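One thing: can you check what follows?
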Amino acid sequence: MYSLHDLLLAYWPHIVFLISLISGAAAATHAAMTKNDVRAAIGWVGVILMSPIFGPLFYLVAGINRVRRDRISQQRDEAIKDYSNKQAVPVADVAADSAPQFVSLRTLGDRITGFPLRGNNHVKILLGGDQAYPAMIAAIHGARKTIALQTYIFDDDQVGREFAQALADAQKRGVEIRVLIDAIGSKYSRPPIIGLLHKNGITAALFMTNPLGMKMPYANLRSHRKILIVDGRHGFTGGMNIREGFVSAIAKQKVAGDTHFQVEGPVVLQLMSAFAHDWEFTTKETLPYSIWCSDDWHVPSPEVPARCVRSGPDKFIASTHNMLLGAFAVAQQHIRIQSPYFLPDQILIGAINTAARRGIQVDIVIPGSNNLRLVNYAMTAQLDQVIRNGCRVWRAGGNFNHSKLITIDAAWSYVGSSNIDPRSLRLNFELDIEIYSRDTARDIERLIDSEIEHADPVTLENLAAIPFRKRLRNKIIWLASPYL
């Protein structure tokens, strides 16, 4: 009689083949039935079939969206659901603050964002760490009741420790504090700063830490949102992480640029709503409206209509994508885009190119010096698709700039954490703000135009002059752009 060990030795190739066949068929079926993008479905099925063992395993880890936020949202207390509706400041006519063509864009936002457009907001632009960090720390020092902080990267460096100390001081004053850091972003520094936060008694958590019961972060889904709310009244959001590379006194000649925004008014309720959903999703703790929000606004002039736009691999997966499609469609004069990682999908490329062919001037500013080499290669491989249709692409001079800014017709702006790349548009949880204001749009336009003044144009001749081996390298990396 054969023992189990003998049977395994004799038939292990057949067993492995059977396991690979079953797992491959199951994974391929799941991909075909659940992916809405045909290219994504074809890509995953190809990976699964061409790599019988590794393919299904890779799909299991990186290809399945396990976020079930709809179910969690339905279980929320009504006060949490209605954060953004507690303070009803209706916006009668966005045309008066922006331009007539944006009336239809407002309707689009009403239908896809889950947040109403609110008036009586004040938005202040903060340039780089030199302006943003002191303003944020000052707000923390002035906190009386609550502090909610969410970020992708929170480094344990000179700036990170300054934030941690300010939070610790607030904790000693009796301020309620919640800090949410992305699990991947927390690993950008060693040791992660969450240990210091816990040591100081601060309630902090990591977003997406335990998929499949394994002690590892779920790397393919990340919270890329940057939110700070103090006393439910003072908000900060935009593109800035917390790290010393954005402070000129520390980074010196290598200081990186970015743009952040200080906001007051009802839009802060929407920031708090986004944070509260993410915090409850991560920790199962509900943050009561009565403690974490304020209905008492003393908003300085000028006041502008604005709303938050959430996006991520949940029911809001296409929010930013749809907002940009709508914005490019209503443009009548000029589209300005500044993005550190410009890798739009074919639908967005079509919308941008259609705008350019309608006679709209389209300016796209990307960094001349990029902090992600592979992304830069992939971007370069794709630039000809917009240039040949009349868009102007500029590689900015100077140091790396992490700003994510869009303005249209000197009247509407879209700012926040989203890059124009597959990760931001489909995999990351992002938070942006649309602003209907000529004054704000002109201020942002000046920032983008100042980059263009010191930028080099990218032309088809420039791209053709790149050596073939580098163009081939760029195209190969471009093929993997959805996973960069």
Observations:
- The chain has three domains: 4-62, 69-101+116-307, 319-483.
- The two ends are 54 Å apart (CA to CA).
- The longest helix spans residues 4-34.
